[in-house]
Each structure stands twice: as C-alpha cells, then as structure tokens.
Write a structure and sequence with these properties.
The structure holds three protein chains of three kinds.
Chain A (H helix, E strand, L loop, with lengths): L7 H12 L14 H8 L5 E4 L5 E2 L1 H6 L11 E7 L3 H8 L3 E8 L4 H9 L4 E5 L2 H7 L8 E9 L5 E2 L7 H9 L4 E9 L15 E4 L5 E2 L12 H16 L5 E4 L3 H16 L9 E3 L7 H5 L5 E3 L8 H5 L17 H10 L3 E4 L3 E3 L4 E2 L12 H4 L11 H4 L14 E5 L11 E2 L3 H9 L15 E3 L4 E3 L6 H11 L11 H9 L3 E2 L21 H7 L15
Parallel strand pairs in A: 1-3, 1-6, 3-4, 4-5, 6-8, 8-9, 11-12, 11-14, 12-13, 14-17, 15-18, 17-19
Antiparallel strand pairs in A: 2-10, 6-7, 15-16, 19-20, 20-21
Helix pairs in contact in A: 8-9
Chain B lengths: L1 E7 L3 E2 L4 E4 L6 E6 L5 E7 L5 H14 L2 E2 L1 E6 L4 H18 L1
Parallel strand pairs in B: 2-6, 5-7
Antiparallel strand pairs in B: 1-5, 3-4, 4-7
Helix pairs in contact in B: 1-2
Chain C lengths: L6 H11 L13 H21 L6 E3 L4 H8 L5 H18 L4 E7 L3 H11 L6 E8 L2 E7 H13 L4 E4 L12 H12 L9 E3 L6 E2 L2 H10 L7 H10 L4 E4 L5 H9 L4 E4 L5 H13 L1
Helix pairs in contact in C: 1-4, 2-3, 2-4, 4-7, 5-6, 7-8
Classes of the chains: A alpha/beta, B alpha/beta, C alpha/beta.
GO biological process, one term (chain C): fatty acid biosynthetic process
GO molecular function (chain C): [acyl-carrier-protein] S-malonyltransferase activity
EC number (chain C): 2.3.1.39
C-alpha cells in the first residue's frame, strides 16, 4: 500500500510561494507585479474570496483580477459577501470566473440577474452574511483570499482600524487551512498603530495604487426625513419600544430608523423613557445617533463596520464605542451579525415589498439584490433562551415550556417612490425566482419571523394573530389604499383594534399634528456636527456648505 | 391639472372650519368647512390618472371617521400616505377645538 | 435639420442609395427620408466628436439609433450603415400600409401593461408589449384595433397617459419578422468588427462586447422591444455617470435625468462643439 501524504495542501502552498520567489521580497510584492502574482498563485477552478461588503472593497485587487490571462486562470469559484463593483462581474463575462457564492449585490443587481439568466454565471447560493462566513469553514474553504488593510508593517501585521469589518473572518479561513492570504495595503509603515490581524496569518502584501474604496453607506441627512416617517417613528417608540421594554436593538439602513434615532432625545424624553429603553446597540456608527448618544440615551454601540466621517467622534467616545488602545475604533462584521442574529431584543428594518401574508423582499423585477445581513437580524433564532423583558413578553402564559421571541419590525409607507404600492398580493421575488431559476424565492424576511408591521396608518401586531387569515386581516388594516389594504373593512378594523391586534395613532396616544420636522433632535447635517461638538466630519457629498 | 368631485353619506357634523397642510411639492392643503348638506370633497391635483386612488383614500377615511363636511383639497403630487396624514391631522384639530 | 451636415455625407447618401435628402418637413413624412436624415445627422455628430478626440466607454442607440451606435463603436462603416438603414426604412414603409401602429402608456408598470396586452392579443387583433422606455413608460405595438382596446383598459387602470402614437408601423413586435429576414441577408455579406467599447443592446438590455451580439441587434431590432430602461440600469452599474445625446433631440437625456438625477448630461442639439469639448475634458479631470 502506497503511503499517503497528509501534507499535500501544505506542500502545494509551499510550491506556489516558491514559484514567485523572484517577485517576492519578504512578504512584499511590488504594485506593478500584482497581475503576475495573481497569475502565479491562483489555479483554474480555485475558490477565491474577494473582500468586499457594502462599505469596504479590496478595490486594487478586484481591479487587478480582470487583467489576468483567462487562458491561465479561468472558471474560478468566487466567494464575495457583496458584489458591488463593475469588475466583480466583468470577470464572469471573460471566463476568468464561473461560479459565485454571495450575500448582497444591490449595486450590480441588474447585471447579476442577466448573467444568471443567460448562464454567464452559475450561482452557488445567495447567503446571509453569517451563512457565507460560516461556510468558509465548512464547504467553501478558500484556496486564495484577497483582502484590504489600511496599514501593514514589515512583518505583515495588519491594521484594519475602524473598517476591520470582515477581514478577520476571511483571513482566518485561509490562514489555517493552507490557503494563500494576499493583502492590498493603503500604506506600509514601520509599526502599525495596533495589530488587528497578526502577520503570521499573512502570506503576501501588495501596496495598492490608491486607498481601498470606502462608502459612507449609513449616513442619512436629517433634512430628508419626512413627516410620515416621523409619525411612524412616534408610533414605533410608543407602541413597540416602550410597550415591549426593548433594551437591545439593531436599526437597518433607512430614513424610518433615522427618524426614530432623532426622536429619542425629544419625543422619547417627553414620554419619560430615557434610561428605560434601548441602552445597548448593535449598529453601524450612524451619524443620526449622535444626539441620542450626547443626551445620554445610548450606553454602548458595537459595529459591523465604520462610517466615513465618524472616526474622530468615535475616538473621543470610547465609553460608547469599541475602541482600541491606539484610540481608533475596531469593528467586526461577523461578530456584529452574530450579535444581530442572536443577542438582540429587536430588529427594525424596511423593505420595498410586503405580500399579503407578511413576507417581505427588496428584490424587484429584473433586479437580484440579495439581502446581506437583514435575514440574520430579521429572523427569530429558535434555539435561544433570553430573560430580557422583551423576549419574555412573547412567552405564552398558558404554556410552561413556551418560548419567547425576537421582535422583528418592518416599517414601511404603504406606497413607495413612483406611487407604487408596497403591499402586494405577490412579491416580484416570485417572478425573479423563475427567471433566474433560483432554488428559493428570494424572500428577505419571512412572515413567520415578522412580529410587527408599522405603516403611516398604524401598527399591526402580527405576533398576536392566531391564524393566517387573522394575520392577513391585520396587514390589510394598515396597508392603506394598496390593493391589499382595500380588502379591509370598518367592522374588521374595529374588531382588530378592540383586541389589540391593530393600533392606530389615536390608540397609542400619538398625535398626528405633532409629527413635525421640528420634533427631530437635528434638522440637518450641520445640526449633527454641532451636537458632536465639531467632532463629526461629514463626507463631502453630505456637506451643503462646501 | 385634474379636478375630481366626490360625495359621501356621512352624518357626524363638524363645528368649525379647519385648514392644514402646505402648498409645496409632494404635499397638499386640506380645508374642512361645516355643512348641513351632503358631504362633498373637491380635489384639484397636479398628477393625472389617480382619480381611483383618490376615491379609495377618501372612502377609507370616511369609513373610519364619518364626518359631515365640505372639503377642499389642493394637491401637489402627494402620496396616499401624506393625503391621509393631512386629513387625519385636520380631524385632530377639530377635536381640539371641541 | 441637415443644414450643418457636411456635404460629402449627403453626397454619400445619394451615391449609395440614390436618395436625395431634401431636408424639409414634407419630405420627413416619408419613412426613408426621415430615417436616412436622422442617420446622417448622427454620423455627422460622431465625426464631430472624433474630431475633438472623444471616444465613449459605451454606446446606446434606441431603435434606428443603434446604427449610429454601431458606427460609433467601430462595428460597421458609415457606408454600410447608410445602405442598411436604407433597406430597413424601405422595407418598413412597404410592410404595413394601414391598420397598424404603436401606443404609449405612462403610469403603469411593464408587468401591468403586459397583463392587459395578454387579455387583448389575438390572431385577428394582434398587440404586443413593446419598448420599455422607463419604469412606468411602456410602448405597445400591433394592430390599431388591438392597441385601442389595451389603451382603454390602461385608462381604466388609472394610467396617467394612454395614447396612440403617430407611427404607421407595428415596430418592435414579432409582426416585423419580414424586415429582420431581409436585414439578415443584407448583413450576411457585410464586414463587421468587434465593438471598441461596450455596446448596450436593444433586444435584451445587456452589455455586449462582441460583434455577434451587435449584429443580432441590427438584424432583429424591429422584432424585439427596446429595453431602454434596462440598458440605462446596466450603464449605471458599469460605472457610467455621464451621457451625451446626439441630434436631433433630447428625449433620452430627459429619461436619463429623471432616472439618475446625478448623471452629467450633454445634448448635442443644445450645445456647441467647443463647449462640449470643454465640459467633457473638465469632467474627466474630476
């Protein structure tokens, strides 16, 4: 019997690194040799992770990858949490890549659905962030990972700072399984401010021609918050945050939740809720939280990623944020998603469509966007057992073994932009499943996980419904004059209100006349800067005075 | 510019005239006046083709709040949500004055 | 319309097709005159842009406009484009003398319009969902009788606008197969090249990088809807943030602006060449 070698992967990796010795200086490869490097260390059919989420992109390496010779490198299996840049898809058109596992493709949603439909690309799965990260350790173990760092020292130690995000989870999956870790660096320094990823895990460093791309994704200008959003925010604070005594929360990206953040120091204060609700947050450092932080509403914030312009403010508020000894923030997307999935009382988000059963999706005709983290936040992990008042408030009285539930709240106006109804009988996602031949209908948050829907008309307490018919009636009651909402009738509404399944603003003691922009703690970006004592520095596109 | 007219058989008389809302893009102004005749709503709107939606918004409103009034609406492309907000705000003002 | 167009271009049309472009309103009632007139105007614009050393990252034509797009991207020569459009316009004119045309519906989704079209379409009164100009602006094409019935249903469904267009041909519908057949024979013998930039195809809204796709679009253009809205989505996803519209109009600039308010746009109709050069160079510098 021939002796089996148990170090084939290690030997293959050593051979690959030996093959590039002519362009390798320690761990460093010159910028101009990046293409040569990729052609040497990547094999056809390899599983390659390209770092890129909805904020941070390994943009130098992603721009280099399309330049490799498709004769040498082809049929790659790409693993990307976010497909954001044109070249992420160009490599499928040229044959360099064949298969894709991903989470979010919002900025490339038209092209990706075209490529799936015409067979240019094969899709593994459309994951949640956590599914994707977890599978890097199980059946999507990468051969090569391409990531980005702010600063790298001579030993290859990485400083990834406020935008550490998903770099650690990606690097670890390759570093300990004989994958090759390639890092693009904004800057090479003698000593990094702190070590976010030890040099021991890093194989190759390439100085980038320009800093990696970073998007200020979570910045919302208070100027654009409408009275309807303020009304919905007031209802949510009274009818959900206060009612369920919510302590820990994640807010999705959007103006609805930005409104709530700016109502806490004003409306929340009037209701005497300060110190009673939402001290602990898992959320990106969104600037609209500044007034709530400054007025003492918020005790702690852990973040998935950073936010452009918030660096200095965060550095001066280490009691609130997660900040290293060097004084800058550290984020971690994998831990953030884990917290969002498992540790929180409540998720509040928004969507483009909700069907008559309460399923919601941001996938609309011709666009396959994926959902990133929302399905993690917006689902009830049935294995957990919390003692918080919010979770316990869902535990049935009559069942001694009964479980509580996470609050999953969808906030939408009944009509979206273009005056198109948000409430529909059938989600466009059903159509998209057929067109793109997907295994699952791309639903973002399932009806069974959704506990509340808030619209400008009122709140539907879906968790209180006993049957699907009753759940549908509750949705119809708050769905306005959409085709779904028109099925509601006054008698049904009266019954649902009497039983507390639906609440209108008057049932919650919310006065619509108070839903004015003057109720917001900040009216515009300038106000946010003032609240921050000049520490917040808005990105140029949000500055009206520059 | 489109004009439409609606009637409703509602009987809860209002006591005073009220005016809410603003003349601005994406918004509307609503004027309620007491009447002892049939409830009447006159809508002037900048966006065409939404007569059915207007009818639905008004029916849903009067189903929930059967007031008897003469109502004038000048609309500048607001969504049904904003229309309903202004109508219900006008109602709140009426209740305050009682 | 053609007063500024260089004489050699107009002479070329005469040489290649025998058609003398008379450039007056009466002549433009004629499908051949108007199609060739617009084409040479666009070919002239392309020459102007080349003279100031501007080359596009992508080209997008709408219907007839794809031939200028194919010239601008280096796929087909001026001469062959003129000859092909001449045949296209001739064939279109003789296909449907009466009873056929197009209609436009504003305010309903494409899906909504397609549902109405399905209710009406029959062998006797054929009607099809055609061009997708924007999310809420869809064109239908087919028999006048069928179109009128769909327009009536659209009005009932609260469409903001549902009108019959002054077009005598059911363009961009399967009824135009005979024109495609003629163009297929015609283009079989023409030398074509891979595009030098991305070509956004009418027939499926995809970004195309090879000659086969462009050739298919030129042959079958009139049989398929123009997926203009998808073309613009794809352009934006490819990182394009600036558009330039050739003459004669500014319709497409309006569509782009209402879809992407941050886009920088230029219409050759409204701007002098040296101003265009100045702006494009300024934007390139960032």
């Amino acid at each position: 019997m021939a002796t089996r070698s148990w170090t084939q992967n290690r030997d293959a990796k050593a051979a690959k690194l030996a093959s590039i010795s002519s362009i390798l200086d320690g761990k460093f490869v010159k910028t101009e040799n990046a293409k040569n490097l990729l052609e040497s260390v990547i094999n056809p059919g390899d599983k390659v992770v390209l770092e890129g989420d909805n904020q941070k992109q390994a943009s130098f390496l992603s721009q280099t990858l399309p330049s490799v010779d498709p004769e040498k490198i082809h049929d790659l299996h790409m693993i990307m949490s976010s497909v954001s840049r044109p070249e992420h898809l160009d490599i499928f058109e040229t044959g360099i890549a064949k298969k894709l596992d991903f989470s979010f493709a919002g900025p490339q949603s038209t092209r990706i659905s075209q490529m799936i439909a015409d067979g240019t690309m094969e899709v593994g799965d459309i994951h949640t962030y956590l599914e994707l990260y977890a599978r890097l350790y199980v059946d999507l173990i990468p051969n090569v990972v391409l990531v980005a760092a702010d600063k790298v020292d001579r030993e290859g130690n990485l400083y990834t700072g406020a935008n550490t995000e998903e770099t650690p989870v990606i690097v670890e999956s390759a570093a300990f399984k004989d994958g090759i870790v390639i890092v693009q660096a904004n800057e090479i320094v003698d000593k990094v401010p702190r070590v976010d990823i030890p040099g021991d895990w890093v194989d190759i460093v390439v100085p980038a021609d320009e800093p990696y791309q970073l998007e200020p994704l979570f910045t919302r200008d208070p100027q654009n918050i409408t009275e309807l959003q303020i009304l919905m925010g007031m209802m949510a604070i009274r009818g959900i945050y206060e009612k369920h005594n919510v302590q820990t929360v994640n807010h999705g990206v959007g103006f609805n939740t930005a409104a709530i953040e700016l109502l806490l120091p004003t409306y929340g204060e009037q209701l005497g809720l300060k110190g009673k609700i939402v001290p602990n947050w898992e959320v990106n450092p969104t600037p609209t939280l500044i007034p709530a932080i400054e007025s003492g509403w918020v005790q702690t914030i852990h973040s998935f990623g950073g936010e452009v312009g918030m660096e200095n403010y965060i550095a001066h508020r280490p009691d609130i944020f997660f900040v290293g000894k060097d004084g800058t923030m550290r984020s971690n997307r994998a831990f953030g998603q884990m917290a969002g999935q498992y540790a929180l009382d409540m998720f509040v988000g928004s969507t483009l469509q909700i069907d008559k059963y309460g399923n919601s999706s941001t996938v609309t005709n011709g666009r396959l966007s994926g959902f990133g983290g929302a399905p993690n936040m917006g689902s009830n992990p049935t294995g957990r057992r919390h003692s918080t008042p919010a979770w316990q408030s869902f535990r049935p009285d009559d069942d001694p073994l009964g479980k509580g539930e996470k609050l999953v709240v969808q906030m939408v106006e009944t009509f979206g932009s273009n005056k198109k109804p948000v409430f529909v009988d059938h989600l466009d996602a059903e159509e998209v499943q057929k067109e793109a031949k997907l295994a699952n209908v791309p639903i973002m948050i399932y009806s069974e996980d959704t506990t509340h829907i808030v619209t400008e008309e009122g709140i539907a307490y879906l968790y209180k419904t006993d049957s699907m018919a009753e759940r549908q009636a509750a949705i119809e009651a708050v769905a306005g004059v959409t085709p779904v909402g028109l099925r509601s009738n006054p008698k049904q509404l009266a019954d649902l209100r009497a039983r507390g399944i639906v609440a209108l603003p008057e049932d919650l003691g919310v006065r619509r006349s108070e839903a004015k922009r003057s109720l917001l703690a900040a009216q515009n970006m300038d106000d946010l800067v003032k609240w921050s004592d000049g520490l917040y520095n808005p990105p140029a596109k949000f500055r009206s005075w520059s | 510019m489109e004009k439409s007219h609606f009637n409703f058989d509602t009987k809860e008389a209002i006591s005073k005239p009220v005016h809410v809302g603003v003349v601005a893009s994406g918004d509307l102004e609503v004027i309620f006046r007491p009447t002892n005749q049939e409830t009447e709503v006159n809508v002037v709107t900048g966006s065409d083709g939404f007569k059915e939606v207007w009818g639905n918004v008004l029916k849903r409103f009067f189903d929930r709040y059967p007031i008897q009034a003469n109502i004038e609406i000048n609309d500048f492309g607001s969504t049904p949500g904003v229309v309903n907000l202004r109508l219900t705000q006008a109602l709140e003002e009426l209740k305050d004055e009682k | 319309m053609l007063q500024n167009v260089s004489h050699d271009l107009l002479a070329k049309v005469k040489d290649l097709t025998g058609v003398e472009l008379t450039d007056d309103d009466r002549a433009y009632q004629d499908s051949i005159q108007i199609q060739l007139g617009i084409l040479v105007l666009q070919l002239f614009n392309i020459r102007q842009l080349r003279s100031i050393n501007q080359s596009p990252a992508a080209v997008a034509g709408h219907s007839l406009g794809i031939f200028a797009a194919a010239v601008a991207s280096g796929v087909i020569s001026e001469d062959e484009a003129i000859k092909t459009v001449y045949i296209r316009s001739q064939k279109m004119q003789e296909s449907y003398p009466t009873g056929y045309g197009m209609g436009a519906i504003v305010g309903l989704t494409r899906k909504g319009v397609s549902e109405l079209v399905e209710k009406i379409n029959s062998d006797v009164e054929p009607v099809f969902t055609s061009n997708q100009n924007s999310e809420l602006q869809t064109v239908i094409s087919g028999s006048i009788a069928g179109i009128k019935k769909v327009l009536a249903l659209a009005k009932k469904d609260s469409a903001q606008k549902a009108v019959l267009l002054k077009v005598p041909v059911p363009s961009h519908s399967p009824l135009m197969q005979s024109v495609a057949d003629v163009l297929e024979t015609r283009l079989a013998t023409v030398t074509l090249h891979d595009p030098k930039c991305i070509y956004l195809a009418n027939y499926n809204g995809h970004a195309i990088r090879n000659v086969q796709g462009v050739k298919y679009d030129m042959i079958n253009n009139l049989v398929h809807p123009v997926y203009w809205d998808t073309m613009m989505d794809v352009a934006q996803e490819l990182g394009i943030d600036t558009s330039l519209e050739t003459q004669p109009g500014q319709t497409f600039t309006r569509l782009v602006k209402s879809k992407f308010p941050d886009f920088r746009t230029i219409t050759m109709k409204n701007m002098k060449l040296d101003d265009i050069e100045f702006l494009l160079e300024k934007w390139k510098r960032g």
